[in-house]
Design brief:
Layout: H1 13-16, E1 26-32, H2 36-48, E2 55-56, E3 69-74, H3 77-85, H4 105-118, E4 123-130, E5 136-142, E6 151-157, H5 164-180, H6 185-193, E7 194-199, H7 204-212, H8 265-276, E8 281-289, E9 293-296, H9 308-326, E10 331-334, H10 335-338, H11 346-353, E11 357-363, H12 378-400
Helix pairs in contact: 5-12, 6-12, 9-12
Length: 410
């Protein structure tokens, strides 16, 4: 029997155990299957609801005859969710504590506008499209000088709604860039040589839904014409071996690929913008959680990218920096070989477009909290991602550009 690795799933045991007991509180379990039958059940549940819904705490009283081996990671997930949503800060200019909390979609839109207003000469707010529910898709452009023919990087966050630490990183990066430009040699060198396009919430409808209705929602909120099920996985909706491996054509699946590549207004807006700027955008970063990985193409095939060894060297160097500074371990490698095969991903699509330095970051943690990473973890998680991003970007500038001034010491 093949070994089946189960990350920290949150299962709906009404499905798994066929129990109808009332939900009093929720738990997060790590489950290890003992039989092939259990492997098949868990594969089916995880395909339909990967890292899916919550487990009734009293379901352990009615486990199936062939018992599962499991570990309770979080005994009361509801309390953790309530703590994540607690927010005493409303002024983005007030203090650093604003960036150490999670924020609603409305708060983030307010922050975007205020950041542009407070930095009119260096920050531009660009509307690139709108979501299925007509929420605006805003990109911040950071441009710290008027150097001609300047290259750029792209960063998107929040493609999967429940990955709150991802969106928190985009805010963290902007603050760090504006606050430490001319003070920190790394970010100064990067911004002297590159503009930055940042999309803090690529999936605004889904993100809003995680705050109002279902904290574990993953997809967007598109209405299907063929099913009562809602949503498309935006990271299966790009034109990179679309809807082949690691994706589903079932609208009820958590990894539903949509009706055709770029069928969703969110993925279409990003793709359209990057096509227009493909000659200047040199680096692509898509920020996700969780599992602590630095990934690069390909995820849609086991074939290696043309510059596989170069991408591997960059990811390895970044992982070593994280290990050195934060004593935390990140796996690295091509997505298909490091995590799993998955078609329709944005990083593979960007690479095929011609952005040869394309990366997906999976931020903290390694499974204890998963998507429910407490706010107290935001600073280190974001600083780890910032370290990786700066390490890779500095190396790319060194490899590809005639920089303005010497690079910072490594």
């Amino acid at each position: 029997m093949k070994t089946f690795l189960v990350f920290s799933f949150m299962f709906n045991f009404n499905t798994l155990l066929r129990t109808t007991e009332c939900i009093e509180t929720d738990q997060v379990l790590s489950i290890t299957p003992k039989t092939q039958e259990q492997v098949d059940i868990l594969k089916n549940v995880s395909t339909q609801r990967p890292y899916g819904n919550l487990l009734p705490s009293n379901s352990s009283k009615r486990r199936p005859r062939s018992t599962y081996s499991f570990l309770v990671l979080l005994p009361n997930a509801n309390e953790l969710i309530e703590m994540q949503m607690r927010n005493d800060s409303s002024d983005p200019r007030g203090s650093t504590t604003f960036y150490e909390r999670y924020h609603t979609l409305d708060d983030i839109y307010f922050w975007l506008n205020r950041t542009q207003q407070d930095n009119p000469s260096t920050v531009k707010l660009i509307l690139i499209g709108s979501s299925s529910e007509k929420q605006p898709l805003y990109v911040l452009k950071l441009s710290l000088n008027d150097r001609p023919n300047k290259k750029a990087m792209w960063i998107d966050c929040g493609i999967h709604a429940r990955e709150w630490i991802s969106t928190a990183f985009c805010l963290w990066f902007v603050r760090h860039s504006l606050l430490f430009y001319s003070q920190n040699p790394d970010i100064t060198h990067i911004l002297d040589n590159m503009d930055v396009y940042i999309l803090p919430v690529m999936n605004p409808d889904g993100y809003k839904y995680t705050w109002t209705t279902n904290r574990m929602w993953r997809k967007n909120r598109a209405v299907s014409k063929s099913s009562s099920c809602i949503g498309v996985d935006l990271n299966r909706n790009f034109d990179a071996e679309w809807c082949t491996v690691g994706a589903s054509d079932d609208p009820c699946s958590e990894i539903y690929c949509g009706t055709f590549p770029e069928s969703e207004p969110e993925s279409q807006a990003v793709a359209k913008f990057l096509r227009r700027h493909k000659d200047s955008v040199q680096l692509y970063f898509s920020v996700h959680s969780y599992s602590q990985m630095l990934l690069f193409p390909y995820s849609c095939t086991l074939d290696e990218a043309d510059n596989h060894n170069e991408l591997l060297e960059l990811a390895q160097h970044a992982a070593q920096k994280i290990r050195r500074f934060y004593r935390n371990t990140y796996k690295y490698g091509a997505g298909a070989k490091t995590i799993y095969l998955a078609s329709g991903g944005s990083d593979d699509w960007a690479y095929n477009l011609g952005i040869k330095y394309s990366f997906t970051f999976e931020l903290q943690d390694s499974g204890r909290y998963g998507f429910l990473l407490p706010p107290s973890y935001i600073p280190q998680a974001c600083n780890e991602a910032l370290t990786a991003l700066k390490t890779i970007t500095l190396k790319v500038i060194e490899k590809t550009q005639a920089p303005t001034g010497p690079p910072p010491a490594d």
